[in-house]
Amino acid sequence: MSSAIFFIAIEGFVKVNKAAIALFMAVMCWALYMLGSGDYIAEFYSQPFRDYLKESAGSGNQAVKFLVENVFSRHVADACETILFLMGAMTIVEVVDSNGGFRFVNRRLRTSDPCKLLWKVVALTFVLSALLDNMTTAIVMVMVLKRLVADRKQRMLYSCVVILAANSGGAFSPIGDVTTIMLWIKGCVSTTGIIKSLLIPAVVSVVVPAFFVMRMLKGKVCSVGGTTVGDDSNMPEFSRKVRIAIFCIGVFGLMLVPVFRTLTGLPPFVGVMGVLAVLWIMTEIVIRKNRRVLRHEAEARVSNIMHKIDMSTILFFLGILLAVGALQETGTLNRLGVWLNTTFSNVYVVNMLIGVISSIVDNVPLVASAMGMYAIQPDTAAGMMENFCQDGTFWNLLAYCAGTGGSILIIGSAAGVVVMGLENISFGWYLKRFTWLALVGYFSGIAAYWLMSLI
Question: Distances from the Cα of 313 to the Cαs of 23, 58, 180, 293, 319, in angstroms?
Answer without folding.
Answer: 11, 40, 17, 36, 10
